[in-house]
C-alpha cells in the first residue's frame, strides 16, 4: 500500500468541533469492508491484495485507501472491530441466559474470536510498532467482560470463586493453538472441559492462591 496521510473515518462537524458520527450507510459500508478484510486475511494472509478485499466488500479501491492509507491501518481496524464484537456479544448473551450458561457460551464465542485472529498473526507478531497498542486494547475490552460474567456466575453459585479473568483468557488462547492439524472444534471441546472444571466447588468459598 502506498503511504498517504491518514484520513478520519468520521465526518468533521461544521463548527470545527468533535467529528460527527458516520452516517448509517457509511457505517454499513465500513462494517462490510472490515468483515471482508477479516475473511480475506483468514484465507490468504495479511499480505493479500487490497483489490481482493475491495471486491469482496463491494467497494472501490479508492474507498479502502481513503479510510486505511496503510495496510497496518486496516489490520488494526479489523482487530479492534473483532474485539468490540466479541465484547458486545457478552452483553447479549448475559441478557438471554442464566449466568453459568452465559459464561459457557461466551467462552465458546471467545474461541471463535481467537480463530479469526489467526489470519492476523503474521502482522501482530511482526514487532511493527503500529500494532503495539493492540494487546492493551484487547485487555481493556475483554478482561472486564469476562470478569463480569465470572462475577455473575459466582454470585449465582454456578462456578467457584477465585478465578482470574486474565488467566482464563490466556488459557483459552493457548488452547486455541492446539495440536498440529486440529481446528477450532478441538479448542471448543477443551474449553467445555475448562468450564466444567470451574463448576467444581461452586457455591463454596475457596481461598485465592
UniProtKB/TrEMBL annotation:
Q: Which UniProt keywords apply?
A: DNA-binding, Transcription, Transcription regulation
Please report the stretch or stretches of sequence annotated as the HTH tetR-type domain: 27-86
Alphabetical list of SUPFAM superfamilies matching this protein: Homeodomain-like (SSF46689), Tetracyclin repressor-like, C-terminal domain (SSF48498)
Pfam families, A to Z: TetR_C_43 (PF21597), TetR_N (PF00440)
Gene3D superfamilies referenced in this protein's UniProt entry, alphabetically? Tetracycline Repressor, domain 2
- In this chain, the stretch annotated as Disordered covers 1-29
Provide any one GO MF term from the record.
Answer: transcription cis-regulatory region binding
The biased composition feature labelled Polar residues covers 1-11
- Tell me where the signal peptide lies: none
Summarize which parts of the chain are annotated to bind DNA, as ranges: 49-68
Task: Please give the InterPro entries that the UniProt record associates with this protein.
Answer: Homeodomain-like_sf (IPR009057), HTH-type_TetR-like_transc_reg (IPR050109), HTH_TetR (IPR001647), Tet_transcr_reg_TetR-rel_C_sf (IPR036271), TetR_SbtR-like_C (IPR049445)
**Transcription: present as a keyword of the record?**
yes
Q: What is this protein called?
A: Regulatory protein TetR
Amino acid at each position: 500500500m502506498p503511504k498517504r496521510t491518514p484520513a478520519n473515518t468520521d465526518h468533521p462537524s461544521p463548527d470545527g468541533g468533535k467529528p460527527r458520527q458516520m452516517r448509517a450507510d457509511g457505517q454499513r459500508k465500513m462494517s462490510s469492508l472490515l468483515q471482508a478484510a477479516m475473511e480475506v486475511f483468514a484465507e490468504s494472509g495479511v499480505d493479500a491484495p487490497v483489490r481482493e478485499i475491495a471486491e469482496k466488500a463491494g467497494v472501490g479501491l479508492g474507498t479502502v485507501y481513503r479510510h486505511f492509507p496503510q495496510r497496518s491501518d486496516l489490520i488494526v481496524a479489523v482487530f479492534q472491530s473483532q474485539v468490540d464484537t466479541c465484547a458486545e456479544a457478552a452483553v447479549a448473551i448475559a441478557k438471554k441466559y442464566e449466568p453459568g450458561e452465559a459464561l459457557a457460551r461466551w467462552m465458546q464465542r471467545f474461541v471463535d474470536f481467537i480463530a479469526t485472529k489467526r489470519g492476523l498473526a503474521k502482522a501482530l507478531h511482526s514487532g511493527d510498532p503500529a500494532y503495539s497498542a493492540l494487546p492493551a486494547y484487547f485487555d481493556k475490552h475483554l478482561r472486564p467482560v469476562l470478569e463480569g460474567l465470572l462475577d455473575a456466575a459466582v454470585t449465582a453459585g454456578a462456578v467457584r470463586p477465585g478465578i482470574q479473568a486474565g488467566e482464563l483468557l490466556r488459557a483459552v488462547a493457548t488452547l486455541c493453538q492446539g495440536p498440529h492439524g486440529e481446528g477450532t472444534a478441538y479448542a471448543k471441546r477443551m474449553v467445555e472441559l475448562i468450564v466444567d472444571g470451574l463448576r467444581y466447588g461452586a457455591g463454596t468459598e475457596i481461598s485465592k492462591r
